[in-house]
Write a structure and sequence with these properties.
The chain is α/β, with parallel strands linked by helices and 224 residues long. The protein has nine helices and seven strands, in the order βαααααβαββαββαβα.
Length: 224
């Protein structure tokens, strides 16, 4: 068995899924100015909550339309189901930590019949005539407009005595991985880790993650 103090913290968009659902929705339903807001966030001028809230205020489509859009378009990254089953078999807690929106994460997990995450942290939404209002989870808040909510959650887990294996792919993961014990990265996050000299394991699917995690924690766990 894996040691009890290890926990897998997993990003959603572009990690559990092959495509970023937020970006897909914004590209389809929002004014192109959403990309300018994205650049403000990338430069560190605004925090994640402000970025998402301003971007999704540009989306006026009803919840049902957006759910149908993601249910048809967004697919899981290969071998996620096998990885989740392996985590259960090893007694390894799997946590979802996302900068994505609750309504589409729920839609995809329900579509796939996935109930493997012990805890889910994501953005709460409220639909209205002025677009979608977005708020970070209450227990994920940090002081300061640019404070990083994903890093705050990881630091809280570490304070509980947990060791963190973190899986991610993008800008919203870049501060959290700095306080993780083991990092699995792809896409933009992989580039950032390498540029910063931060040790990480690259992955394309969850079979890569399973093998890398088993090897890194020094356990003799057979991996197909």
């Amino acid at each position: 068995m894996l040691r009890d103090n290890w926990v897998v913290v997993c990003d959603f968009d572009g990690t559990v899924t092959t495509e970023d659902a937020s970006e897909a929705i914004l590209a389809e339903f929002a004014d192109p100015v959403w990309r300018d807001i994205d650049e403000e966030y990338a430069r560190g001028e605004i925090g994640l909550e402000e970025c998402i809230d301003r971007q999704f205020a540009l989306v006026k489509a009803p919840r049902a339309v957006l759910r149908a859009f993601v249910e048809e378009r967004i697919v899981l990254r290969p071998h996620f189901r096998e990885f989740a089953a392996w985590c259960r078999a090893q007694g390894l807690e799997l946590i979802l930590l996302s900068g994505g929106l609750d309504f589409y994460i729920e839609a995809i997990l329900e579509r796939e019949g996935i109930a493997d995450f012990r805890r889910v942290f994501c953005v709460a939404t409220e639909f209205g005539p002025d677009g979608i209002r977005c708020r970070l989870p209450v227990d994920g808040r940090t002081s300061g407009g640019n404070a990083d909510y994903k890093r705050a959650i990881v630091e809280r887990l570490r304070a509980e005595g947990r060791r963190i294996a973190y899986l991610g792919d993008g800008l919203t993961d870049r501060q959290a991985v700095a306080v993780a014990d083991l990092v699995f990265a792809r896409r933009k996050l992989l580039e950032d880790c390498r540029a910063a000299g931060l040790a990480c394991i690259s992955f394309e699917d969850f079979r890569d993650v399973q093998r890398g995690l088993a090897a890194a924690v020094g356990e003799s766990i057979p991996c197909p």
